[in-house]
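Our consortium's second objective concerns turning raw sequence data into structural hypotheses that experimental partners can test. To show how far this objective has progressed, the report includes one record in full. It was chosen at random from the queue rather than selected for favorable results. The single chain below, 118 residues long, was entered without modification.
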Amino acid sequence: MRAEAFMDLSKLVIEGFDVKTIRAKLEGLKLAFGKDEKSLALIEKLLKSHSKAADARRLEGLRTVQLIRSKVKGHSGNSEAAQLAHQALKQHETFTGHFEHVCKMVADELNRIERLFS
């Protein structure tokens, strides 16, 4: 599974979020959050607060990037990594196809996040 590509994508996108800015936005909206909550959980709270209940979606693409980074790249020999690779091939036929699919989801999510801060 293009583990290196997912690692790079994670570094570029997920590590690039400014948690202080996200928390300030939540505070401005008087939305509660935990001190230990990281960027994706905080952004999901913002999305939920700005969406109709049916439209409030989890950040599936970004969560997938994070999962693959932690399970496949960091622990390449475990059975969970093998299961993720198997699922990716089953659904998308190639690792490239899977990566492209996840990148499209991430691009959509980044557009939604950008609208929150515009």
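The partners drew two points from this record. Helices lie at 3-12, 19-28, 39-49, 60-73, 79-92, 95-116. The chain has six helices and no strands. Both points have been shared with the crystallography group to help prioritize constructs.
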